[in-house]
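[audit] Reproducing an earlier prediction to check determinism. Same input, same settings, fresh worker. If the tokens differ from the archived copy the diff job will pick it up downstream; this log only records the rerun itself.
[audit] input (250 residues):
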Amino acid sequence: MAEVAFRPLQSWALPPEKPRTDRGAARAERDTYRDSFRYLRIPRLPADCPPWVLGQELGWAVRSPVTLTMKPLDDIGIAVPEREDAHQAGRRLGGAGMWQRGEEWIAARNADWLHLGDYRAANGSWEGMFLPNGQGTVEWRLGWAATIPARTFLMVMPPPGSGPDGLRVPLGVIPAKSVNAMADRGGMSIAVEPERPVTVHRGQEIARIVLLHPDSLRATTHQHTAEPESSIPPPGHPAKAAGHGQETGR
């Protein structure tokens, strides 16, 4: 059986947890309706549907480590010419904040809230929990590390239930080598995109992560189409008269 391990790297981190469906509570509610009300009933319980339960309990729930309001980013990728100050370039762009990502820069307005997640690292310096990722997305550092088996993959997806309304989680698949190496680079991070002002709460599920076997990515499909039946009767089969299928004669 494949084993997955999570460990906190920061005191505020909330490592993922396995979702569980409370079937007992759902059935107790159904029985209360049956025993107490004349007309109201719960005729079918989702908790009694195995496919639904498996979907709800799939993978691990990724939870927000903070409570704050996120806002959509107005960002653009730019280059800062040599010997030009990046923050001066940001002021020329209307006071946009500047974040270096690789060799290029991302200038973003409406980004003051990104600094609300700044946290103290092990060396005493301040680190950003939120970093602009480009095209309106944000890299969200979660403060914990994951270890998954070699040659497997970790899929990041929106929660199957009701996540924060207005927070989009792009679907992504990360190989084990990258997932396990994140432990030395500050821990796991996911991409999110606030589509409108949205408040997330500490402990609220914001995404779901699922372990994938390599065969999940290598699988292929074969489509089989049924051959149409021939309208020509086989040799020796008496042909029917057109229209009625009856023998004709004088």
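[audit] rerun output stored. Observation attached for the diff report: The two ends are 80 Å apart (CA to CA).
[audit] end
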